[in-house]
Amino acid sequence: MNLKTDLPTQILVRDRRAIASALNLIDDQRPKQKMEAARLLSALSDIESKPRIGITGPPGAGKSTIINALATNLAGQGLTTGIIAVDPSSRQTGGALLGDRIRMREHSDNEQPFLRSMAARDRLGGISSATHAGAAILEAAFDLVIIETVGIGQSEDEVRTLVDTLVYVCQPGAGDLIQFMKAGILELPDIFVINKCDLGNSADRSLDELRSALGLTTKTDDDWKPPVLLASGENLTGISELCDQLTEHKHFLQEGIGLRRRREGRDQFIRKEILLRYGSLGFEALGGDRVLGELCSKWHSPSPYEPLMHLDKKIRGLLQELLNRTNEP
Amino acid sequence: MYLLSETCDGFRDINISKLKKETVSESTRQTHSAKPWVFRTYSGHSSAKASNKLYRSNLSKGQTGLSVAFDLPTQTGYDPDNPLSRGEVGKVGVPIAHIEDMSELFANIPLGEMNTSMTINSTAAWLLALYIVVAEKQGVALEKLAGTTQNDIIKEYLSRGTYIFPPKPSLRLVTDMISFTVQNIPRWNPINICSYHLQEAGATPVQEISYSLANAIEILDRLVGENEFSQETISKIFSRFSFFVNSGIRFIDEVCKVRALTALWEEIGRTRYGVTDQKSLRFRYGVQVNSLGLTESQPENNIIRIVLEALGVTLSKNARCRALQLPAWNEALGLPRPWDQQWSLRIQQILANETDVLEHEDIFDGSHVVQNRTDQLTSTSREEMEKIFAMGGAVAAIENSYMKQELVASHSERMQKIENGETTIVGVNDFREGEDSPLLEATQSFLKVDESTERQQIENIQRFRTKRNDSEVSRSLRNLTEGLRNGQNIMPLSIDCARSGVTTGEWGNALRGIFGEYRAPTGVVISSPRNSDSQVRRIQNQVKELTRQLGRPPKILIGKPGLDGHSNGAEQIAVRARNVGMEVVYQGIRLTTEEILSSARDEGVHLIGLSILSGSHEVLLLDLIDRMRSTHCNIPIVAGGIIPKEDAEKLIGEGVKKIFSPKDFDLTHIMGEIVNVIADESKN
Prior knowledge:
The complex is a heterodimer of chains A (329) and B (684). With 329 residues, chain A is an alpha/beta fold.
C-alpha cells in the first residue's frame, strides 16, 4: 500500500495510521511537505461537513474528563469521534506538556476516539492553521469533531471561528466564572457546563449567577438561549443532557445558519491569519477589508485552506512587485 | 529503586506497665536500656508459598515483626490473568488473589502472636478482610490481632500511584476501616499516614511535615464531622493513627524533623480534637530510611548511608521510631537477595544491642541548635498547613494539584543541585575514581523473579475459580455492591466475600463499577525551568536545529506501562523535555503496551520514552517491540528504570535505542541522548 497517494481514501475509511500521518504532514513546515499538505487538503475539501464542537474553559475545570465521557456516550450511539486537544506552549522554551491523554480512558467495546494533542506554539489562543487543517482531516474521517482549548478569555473568540457549537466548561466556585464574565465574552458559548456538580451548594450558586448574567446578554443568533447544565465527568451525570443539547443546537443551526456561522468564522480566521503573516502592510497591499471580503465570498466551503493558499500566493506576488518597485533606481 | 523501600509498619502495642516504668525512670537518670523498636524487613515476592518461607526464615534471624510487600496487581485490584497484570505478577511483592493464597502466606505463623504490617492502600479493606478470615481459620480472636494497614490514599495520589478510585469514595473506605477496627480490632493501626513517599518524591522537611499532618487532619475531620462520637471514641481514634516516616542522609535535620512532628501532633490532638491523655497524644511512627539517595554507582557506599539515616530516627529518645525497616544496599541495581536484607537487619541489631543508643535519656534535650531548628521547622510547617486549610484541606490541595506541583518543583530543584554539583553525592558527581567493588563480582548480585511465576499464578487462580461455589460468590458480590450503595461499612461485606471465595480482581471490579476510576493531576503542567545553564541552552539549540530538520518540533510520548505508579522519574523527564523545547505527550501511569502504541501513533510522536521500576521491563518492552513489528510501526523507544546491565544489553539487542538507569542522574544529558536518537532516526 502506498500511504502517500492513497492518503485521502485511507482517511475516509478511518485508517488511523493514515489519519495520523496526515496530521503530521499538515504540521510540517518544510516547503515540499507544505505543498503535499495543500494537495491533500484540496482533495478532502468537498467532504460533507460534520458537527464540530469546541470545548473550552479554564485549566482544571475537567474538560478532558467531560470529553472522555461525551465520546463514550457518542460511541454508545454508534458515532465515532475525532478530538484535537490544544495545550499552551512555554513562551520561554517553546516546549509544551500535552497532558490530555491522561484522562482518556479505554473504550473497550467500541472504537477508540482518535485524539491528537497539539501545542499552541506561538498562538495565545492556540488556534493555528494546523488546528484548522487538523479539524478538516478529522472531519473527513469521523462522525464528529471535538476541539479542546484552554480558555481564559483569549481563545474563545478564535475557537469560535472553527466550530459549530462552543461549550464552556467551568467548575463551581466563583473565581473562574467571574474572570470569564469580566472578559466580556459571555455571548460566545452556545452551551455552559458547570462540571464537578457533586461539590453541592457552590455548583447551584454558580448556576444561578451564570443564568442571571446570561439574562443580560444578547445573542447574535436570535433565538438560541444558551442552556446552563450541571454535570460531573467523573460520575457521568449530566452527560446525556449535554448530548441532547448538542443535538438541539445542531438542529437549531440548520443548513443556513450553520453554514453562515462557519463562513463568518472562516473569514475572521483568514483575516487574522493574513494580518499575522503579512502585517498591516500586506493587508493594505491586498486592498484591505473590502477586497478581502469579496475574495473570501468567492469560496463556498467553510474550510479556510483554499482561500488562504490563494491569498498567500497573491500577497507574495504583490509584495514581490512592491519590492521590485522600491529597488528601481 | 523506590519499590522495595516502601512499606508500612505497625507497632507493638505499648504495654501499660512498661510505660509506667519508663515514666519513673525518666525522672532519674535511666540505668537500664529502653525497649528497642520493632525490627522489620519489607519483603515478599513470587508466590505465597515462597514468601511464607522467607518470612519464617527472617523471623528466625531475629526479625521481630512482619512487613508484607504485595505485588502490583494485588495493590491495584486485578487478578493475575488480567491483561494489565502482565509482567507484574509476583515482581515487587507477593501475589494474593484469594483466601487460599492468604492462608498459605501465613501458614505456620500464628497470627495471634504476630505483629503484621501490610503495605496496602486502595485494596486495604480487602486484604484486611482476607487477614481476618485467615485468623478465623487459625482460631484467633479479632482482639488478638495486631498490625497495620498502610491505607493512606492521599499520598498515593501524590507519589506512589496505586490508587484506583476518586478521592471521595477512597476516603470513605479509609474511614469505614477505621470505624471497624477501632470497634473490633482494638490493637490494629488502621492507617499509617506516610510522609515517607513524599520525601521519595522530592519533598523538603517542611513539605513532609505539613502535607502528612494535613492529610491526617483531613481524615480525622471527616470521621469526627460525619459521626457523633463521644470524646472517648475520638481520643481512641486519634491514638490509633500512626505514621510512616522517611529518614534521609541529612540525619541531624531528620532528628529535628521527627521532634517537630512529635510536637505538632501533640498540639493538634490537644487543640483540634480535645485529646488529653498523654499516651494517646504520642506521635507513633515507623520508618523506612531513604531510598531516593541510594546510588547505583559504588553501591557499597549505600550501606554507610543506611546506617547514618537510621541514626536520625533512633538517637532522640523522645522522638524515636517504633518500628524500623532498612532498605538493602543494592536496591538501585535490582531486587535484593535474602543475604542483602539480612545485612540490613544486622545494622538494626548492632545499633540496638551493641551501641549505647538505648541507654540514655533524650540526648538532644538542652541543645539550642536542635531546638532552634526544630522550632523553625514547626513554625514554617504550621504556615504551610494554614495555606492548605485555606484551600479547603488536603483533598482540595490534591484536586487543584497544589501539593503535587510543589513536590515536582522541589524534586526538580533537587535534581538540578545534583547536576550542577551544589549537592555532593559521593561516587556519583564527585569522588568517582575508585577500585571496582568485589561485591559486584558475584554472578548475580541481586534477585531475579522467575518468569514462570506469572504462569503459575494464572494456573493457580483458574484452578481456584473452578473449585469454589459460584452461587455463593455471586451472592456475596451482589451484597457487596448493594451494601456499598446503601452506605454500609466495607469491612463486613468484604469479609463475607473473602469467605465465599471472591478474588482480588472481582472485589476490585465491583468497587470500580460503583466508584469509577480516577486519574490524579500530574503536577507537571506548570513547573517551569528555574535556571537554564549552558548545557540546557546547548540542548535547546539542538532541539531548534532538529525542529528544522523534522519540519516540526520533536514530539515525544512519556508514560509508564504496567501497574507501577511511581511516576516521579517520568514526571521529571517530561518536565525537562518540555524545558529544552520538546512537545511532550505525558500519558501517565498504568498503561498497556497496546494503549502506548496506539497513542504514539495517533499523536505522531518521534519517540516513546517509558519508565519501569517494578522489574517488569523485559516482558513489557519486548511485548511493545513485538506489537510494533506486527503493525509495521517504527517509533524509536528509550526506557529508564531499575534495569540491570544484562537486561539492558539484551533489550538494546532487541531494538530499544537507549536504556537509562539510576546512575544516569543528569537529566540534561538524557535529553541530549533523546535528541540524538530522534536525529539519527530521522536520517534513516
